[in-house]
Amino acid sequence: MLSAAPLSPAALAAAAVAPAAVPGYVIGARLGASIQPLGQPQNAPAPYDPQQVQTAYGVNLINFNGIVGTGAGQTVAIVDAYNDPNIIDDTKAFDTQFNLQQFNVAGGPTFQVLGQTGTTTLPTINGQGWDLEESLDVQWVHSMAPQANIILFEANSSGGDDMYQAETTAADFAGVSVVSNSWGSGEFQGENTLDSIFTTPVGHQGVTFLSGSGDHGEPGLYPAFSPNVIAVGGTNLQIQTSGAYISESVWNNNNTGNNGGWATGGGISTQESQPSYQTGKVNGISTSQRLSADVSADADGNSGVYVYDSFITGGPWWQVGGTSLATPLWAGMIAIANQGRVLAGEGTLNGPTSQILPMLYNFPSSDFNDVTLGNNGTYSAGPGYDLPTGLGTPNANLLIPALAGFGSNQPPSITAPANAGVTENTALTFSTANSNAISVTDVSSGLNADSLTLSVSHGTLTLASLTGLQFTTGSNGSALFTVTGTIPNLDAGLSGLIYTPTTGYVGSDSLSLSLTDPGTSQTASATVSLTVVPPVTGNWTAMTQFVPNGDAGQLAMLLPNGQLFVHGLGDGQGDSPEWYLVTPDSTGSYVKGTWAPAGSMNVGRLYFGSTVLPNGEVFVVGGEYSSTGGDDNTAEIYNPVTNIWTNEATSPKSIVGDEPTELLPNGNVLVGDIVDNGTEIFNPIANTWSP
């Protein structure tokens, strides 16, 4: 393309109030007119050169069935502000010094500098350090992926409207598969409106977006907090002179809070909700908000790298760090992964929630160097995911081939409820709102089409959306059909899938699903057991079976597996620990259902809060009367599979539960208080309470 479409009105309004972007580099040292040879200690002194960093992260070992991983055929876009008049000549000097592939020569990659709308009209020169940022970005994407093409998009200013216009242009530019952003600003209201900028444009090959998490500790920056962007944190990297990896710790140069010290960003977003790929993958730090960082790499100015910039006084050689270094390191490696994907016949990685980010969070820990030492002034590193360094730094010789689909491809998967019920002559909708959603994932497919087959025996199935889907067998609204489409389009069709049982049918049915990735020949399958029951007539019918042990029921809940869960009256005082399970007969009726004792609670209760959790377990809390004597604030969870009650964290309120207990859409439980109008929330996954 030669020019870019303008920002949408909503995005333009949000960009106009966005704080000005700031570059994210840190100068470790001014090296002057020449660089000194390395000494020979076991720990190599900084600055590090391209070969050392490639070796440290295993980039030099990447190959795809014998083809060296260099980023060949891929184009990385870099977005910065203002013009650096010396960037082309400075990059030539850098490449010459370190024997890297030169740009714009026969057989080599290309390097272009364009304005924010994609033309050769460039912005004015600015003396506020953006030239050093541009040198760092270009030279270190090139150091990681020496055969990748690079386009530097220079925004007219660091203002939000100009920076996000340049971002939009870069994402939609022909050939671009990675966009690197070594800048950001503090979070602001309305930033969510800009998140759509960081998605693959319609009709374009997959694009991955990356951004540095910040250089002043917690909380971090936007756009790194966007759920569509890979947030890159920073470390202090220690290596041998050969480049062999020794260790890493969190980058922190005297930052103990907001004291102006330098340290990697990372924290909890105030504006962005937690994306699904982080759910259950972030050590329980938060279950509701987007967390940054996702990954990390070298950023400490004290373990910084060589950069050549002749525009500002004191150079041309500089020792530079910051998450502005970590980000282009990762951008170059993603370009190499895309090189491998093309060789494998797959599309380039699609950055947002449908592909690369879920892949990163599902790869084995061995694909990363787990950084467990240090803090960014607020948050500490530890085993597994942490806020300063995310999942860790790359073992690129393992991680990049996995992203490319070489070695062990990840199979597709289907998420579906085990059971579902519906009344005779009515339709059943599978959706998130109904807590029975069906979804599919396939991180290996990219923007290529997968094949999905659905079938039932006693009814019909109707997809909610047909956008981008093609039927290869059957038709929508039939008992059996196969459709092809991308994972996002298949998911859209399944979100609101309708099962309509055959008129007059009562009994069991089975919904079968099969998902196939033609590129990897891998499949996934799932089955939902369906029960069609007669309609309620509006009259009470006595159950023919009696409660065991001469007991009586005083509370009943319907479990997802179709059983009734009934609380017994016990000794007549009501504060009973006893429960019973009622299994319907073959017609789905509970009138002649079978009663059986279930596990007993650890505490007998009366007038308590209760609800069925999304995973089919039962949560109870409190009670106005209890076997412990009087009011109660303890909580328990019943597992129908193990038939065991487990004590949970005690409510901080003294008397709870004699109020409606509501299950929230995120799976947490809202609990009322008996003695006042206060409420609190229980998180079943983290086993914690909050006001």
Outline the fold blueprint.
Layout (H helix, E strand, L loop, with lengths): L8 H9 L4 E2 L2 E7 L17 H8 L5 E2 L2 E2 L6 E7 L5 H11 L13 E5 L14 H15 L4 E7 L4 H13 L3 E6 L1 E2 L23 E5 L17 E10 L5 E6 L1 E2 L8 E2 L3 E7 L15 E4 L2 E4 L6 E4 L8 E5 L1 H21 L12 H7 L5 E2 L23 E2 L1 H9 L8 E3 L3 E5 L4 E3 L8 E3 L8 E6 L3 E4 L7 E4 L6 E6 L1 H8 L2 E5 L5 E11 L4 E12 L19 E6 L5 E5 L10 E5 L10 E4 L7 E2 L2 E4 L5 E6 L1 E2 L5 E8 L4 E5 L13 E2 L5 E4 L6 E5 L4 E3 L1
Parallel strand pairs: 5-7, 5-8, 6-7, 8-10, 10-11, 11-17, 23-32
Antiparallel strand pairs: 1-9, 2-19, 3-4, 11-12, 13-14, 15-16, 18-19, 20-21, 22-25, 24-30, 26-29, 26-31, 27-30, 28-29, 31-32, 33-34, 34-35, 35-36, 37-40, 38-39, 39-41, 41-42, 43-44, 44-45, 45-46
Helix pairs in contact: 1-5, 3-4, 4-6, 6-8
Structure commentary:
α1 packs across α5 (160-172). With 691 residues, this protein is of the alpha+beta class. Strands 5, 6, 7, 8, 10, 11, 12 and 17 form an eight-stranded mixed beta sheet that branches. Helix content is 15%, strand content 31%. The relative contact order is 0.10. The longest helix has 21 residues, at 323-343. The chain is elongated and about 90 Å long.
